[in-house]
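#help-structures
NK: newbie question, is this the right format to request a structure? protein is Alpha-1,2 mannosyltransferase KTR1
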Amino acid sequence: MSGSGRYLRYIVIAVFALAVIFLVSSSSTPSASGLHQSASELLKGSGSIWKGSGSSTPDKSGGTSGDVKDSELPKHTDSFKDNTSPNPVSGETRLPATPAPGERMNATFVTLARNSDVWDISRSIRQVEDRFNRKFNYDWVFLNDAEFDDTFKKVTSALTSGKTHYGKIGKEQWGFPEWIDQDKAKKVREDMHERKIIYGDSISYRHMCRYESGFFFQHDLMKNYEWYWRVEPSIELFCDIDYDPFKFMADNKKKYSFVLSLYEYVETIPTLWDSVKKFMKTHPEHIAEDNSMQFLSDDGGETYNKCHFWSNFEIGNLNWLRGKAYTDFFNQLDMDGGFFYERWGDAPVHSIAAGLMLKKDEIHFFNDIAYYHVPFTHCPTGQQYRIDKKCHCDPKDNFDWNGYSCTKRFYETNGMQLPDGYAVEQ
């Protein structure tokens, strides 16, 4: 009996010890709710977090059928307060960045977009921010012929590292000027539609081309800046940009730049060069002595060879565009009515102006800025550069040395040596 009691005491002690061990181990192991709380706190300090990145489609009102709810938008943490937007929206946030040293130019990105473009321009913003602007924090100006809605403002301002500004375009700059014959313009659109000319029957496309040709740099929001970088929806940047292209332009006295060049559709500009020749005769004082006529014409200016810089990407000087020479040039073209009686694009307008009124060495080709806008790709020529700058473009897609490109002509006009490796990549 005494032996049984001794065994019983041993059993009780063992059970008690196991219970103590169990309780201690349980208190040191986080519960499921504790794990969830820890993860949430960790995420709160990690910058912006997107919860609903599904696609959206334009609705009839010009908005989107997939508008993000306030609860789905990224919120500020204590580390990333909204200290940039001049029109702060509740719930805004910024991408974390490590600013690059050095001075900043008085510069901005500029985008012409509608509310329904919100997801396509968001893709472009991420491309620009991830490859460049997270280190430099330049502003962004968005322009629209209507008021921007809250969704557009919230989504885009959350993605930028610099200040965001949203402006509406006035009707006097987005419409038919009083001297345009509406019946004549309508017949032109109908004819171009029958001939299947791209955007040939579009009124809004014509307003856009005229606005980009003569007015975007006059908007009140743009008057605060000296330099601009044009960005359109759904573009892609393939390589890191570790220096400041704005500062490069300023330091090297450049006023206009490009990454892609090609021939314009002749059906859209049949009389454009006639207007240009009239301008050159009327304003010889605006034509630079060391200009790029060789890039624009094969016969000394008698005819236009249709070469132009693709203006959906351009970095340029706003003071040049606001100057008397360019103003006289645009006013001449505008009065001739070719934006509506034909379908003059802003690309040949900018290109001809730069080619005639700037010195050759004031125009720059950014071989190192890898870029895509449907359907063309600029992939930098030179394998080592692509490796060093973490490029993800396929050199086989590079348009530069394609027969329809004018980039080789630009090199020849400026007496520049073609980049190493171009022959292999043709």
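mod (FA): yep, format's fine, and the tokens are attached above. The radius of gyration is 29 Å.
NK: thank you!
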